[in-house]
Design goal:
By secondary structure, the chain is an alpha+beta fold. It has 2 domains: about 1-50 and about 260-405, no CATH class; about 60-225, no CATH class. Helices cover about 55% and strands about 15% of the residues. It is built from 16 helices and 10 strands. The chain has helices spanning about 1-10, 15-55, 80-90, 120-125, 150-160, 195-200, 205-210, 230-240, 250-255, 255-295, 295-305, 310-345, 355-360, 370-390, 390-395, 400-405, and strands at about 60-65, 95-105, 110-120, 135, 145-150, 165-170, 175-190, 200-205, 220-225, 245-250. Strands 2-3-8-5-7-6 form a 6-stranded mixed β-barrel, surrounded by 4 helices. Strand 2 (about 95-105) and strand 3 (about 110-120) form a beta hairpin. The longest helix is centred in the first third of the chain and has 41 residues, at about 15-55. The two termini are about 30 Å apart.
C-alpha cells in the first residue's frame, strides 16, 4: 500500500503545472463555497432574528388552540405573574406578556377596524422592534394610561396626528361592550404596509380594563439572542409550565411556518448555482486524469506486460485523484475558514444595505455563520465529485491491451 501511495504522489508531480492548475480550481471553488454557505447561513439567522424580533418573538406561551383560532376568550389567567415567573427563571432572555383583540378605531373623520395589542411597556422593547421605530412622539410608558401607538399608514387613513384622540369600540372577554378613548402618543413606521395599516399597541393594564380581561392575556413572548438557543428556551419554558396542561409552547417554526419554507426555497435555488460550480470542477479533474492516463498508455502497457493487474493501475489513478482532491480540500477549507472568520467579525454589507437597515431598525451587516457544517459541506461534495470524475479514466485501464499499449506513440 505504501508503494502505491509513493508512486501516486510521485506521478502527481510529474506535471507540476497541470497538477497545480487543477488543484487551484478545487481550492478556489472550496473557498468560494465555504464563504457563500457561511454567508448564506448567517443571512438566514439574520432573517429569522429580524422577522421574529419585529414582533412575534422566537417562541410564545399560549393557551391551546389560540394559535389556530385567536379568540379573545382563549386567554391565560394571571398572565403577568406567569411572565414574571418565566423572566425570573430565564433571566438571559427577553420576556413580555401580551393580550390581543380587535376594535373599531374612530377619529373625527374616519373609522377603521384594527388589531389592538396590549403590551407591557417596560418589557416590550426587548421582544419587539416597534418601540425603536416610533418616528413621531414616544413609546408607551404607563401600563394603565389611556394611550396608544399606531402605524403611519393607520394615522394617514384616520387623518390623525400625534396628540389626537381616537375612540376604540369592541367586545370584551365576557361579551360586554368594550369602549375607550385613547390619546395617540406615538406613530411608528415599520416599513410593512400591513402592520402600519392595521396594528396598534396600548398598555396591557389599560387593555385588560377596557376589554374586561381581568388579569388575563393571550401570550407570553420570549426573544433569544441566537436562533440556536430556541430549543433550550423551549425546554426551559415547558419545564416551568408543565403543571398547566392548557398551555402550549410554540417555537418560531410553528408561529411562522412560511419562514422555514422561504429559507428552504432560497437554499434550493442557491444550490443550483453551487452545483454548476462543483460540476465544472469535476470536469476539470476528469480532463486532467484522462490526459494523464492517455499520456501514460505505453508506460501502463509495459507495467501490465510485467504482470501488474489493471485493478492495481486503476487504484493508482484513483489514489492520485484522491491526493490531489485532498490538497484542494485542505487548502481550500483553511483559506475559506480565514475569509469566513474575518467577515464573521467585521461583517459583510451589500451596497445600499446600510440605508435599508436604518429604515427598518435592522442590523446593517450580515455576519457569516462559521461552523463545521458550513466549512465542510461544500468542500466534501467537491471532494466526492472529484473522486467520481476519476472513475472513467480508471475504468479505461481495464480495457488496456499490453501489446497495443506498448505500440502507442
Amino acid at each position: 500500500m505504501m508503494l502505491i501511495l509513493r508512486m501516486a504522489w510521485r506521478n502527481l508531480w510529474r506535471h507540476k503545472r497541470r497538477t497545480w492548475l487543477t488543484s487551484t480550481a478545487m481550492i478556489f471553488s472550496n473557498v468560494l463555497l465555504v464563504f457563500l454557505i457561511s454567508l448564506q447561513l448567517g443571512s438566514y439567522d439574520m432573517m429569522i432574528n429580524n422577522t421574529l424580533r419585529s414582533f412575534s418573538g422566537h417562541l410564545q406561551v399560549q393557551r391551546a388552540g389560540y394559535n389556530e383560532s385567536p379568540k379573545l376568550r382563549e386567554s391565560i389567567a394571571a398572565i403577568e405573574p406567569l411572565a414574571a415567573e418565566l423572566r425570573s427563571a430565564m433571566p438571559e432572555y427577553a420576556i413580555s406578556a401580551r393580550a390581543a383583540g380587535f376594535a373599531l378605531a374612530s377619529s373625527e373623520q374616519r373609522s377603521i377596524g384594527i388589531q389592538v395589542i396590549g403590551v407591557q411597556p417596560d418589557f416590550e422593547t426587548g421582544v419587539s422592534t416597534i418601540p425603536g421605530l416610533v418616528k413621531e412622539g414616544r413609546y408607551l410608558q404607563d401600563s394603565y394610561a389611556p394611550e396608544i401607538v399606531i402605524g403611519a399608514v393607520m394615522a394617514r387613513n384616520l387623518k390623525v396626528q400625534n396628540g389626537d384622540e381616537i375612540t376604540l369600540l369592541g367586545s370584551g372577554r365576557d361579551g360586554s361592550f368594550a369602549a375607550g378613548v385613547v390619546t395617540i402618543v406615538g406613530i411608528f413606521d415599520s416599513g410593512s404596509q400591513d402592520m402600519d395599516r392595521s396594528f396598534a399597541e396600548v398598555p396591557l393594564g389599560y387593555f385588560q380594563e377596557v376589554f374586561a380581561m381581568e388579569d388575563h392575556g393571550h401570550s407570553v413572548v420570549v426573544a433569544v439572542e441566537q436562533v440556536d438557543q430556541v430549543s433550550s428556551a423551549v425546554a426551559a419554558a415547558r419545564a416551568l409550565t408543565a403543571q398547566r396542561q392548557e398551555l402550549l409552547i410554540l417555537d418560531w417554526n410553528e408561529l411562522h411556518p412560511g419562514l422555514r419554507q422561504a429559507i428552504q426555497a432560497d437554499m434550493s435555488s442557491a444550490w443550483f448555482m453551487y452545483a454548476v460550480l462543483i460540476i465544472l470542477v469535476a470536469f476539470s479533474v476528469l480532463n486532467t486524469q484522462l490526459m494523464s492516463v492517455l499520456e501514460r498508455t505505453r508506460e501502463f502497457g509495459v507495467i501490465t506486460a510485467l504482470g501488474i493487474k489493471p485493478g492495481n493501475l486503476a487504484s493508482l489513478v484513483m489514489l492520485e485523484t484522491t491526493l490531489m482532491a485532498l490538497i484542494g480540500l485542505l487548502i481550500g477549507v483553511f483559506l475559506g475558514w480565514l475569509v469566513a472568520l474575518y467577515f464573521s467579525i467585521a461583517g459583510f454589507s451589500y451596497p445600499g444595505m446600510d440605508e435599508v437597515a436604518q429604515r427598518f431598525n435592522l442590523p446593517s451587516r450580515i455576519y457569516p455563520s462559521v461552523g463545521w457544517f458550513s466549512l465542510m459541506l461544500g468542500p466534501s461534495i467537491v471532494f466526492l465529485f472529484c473522486l467520481l470524475a476519476s472513475v472513467y479514466p480508471a475504468l479505461r485501464l481495464f480495457k488496456l491491451r499490453p501489446v497495443e499499449a506498448m505500440r502507442a506513440v
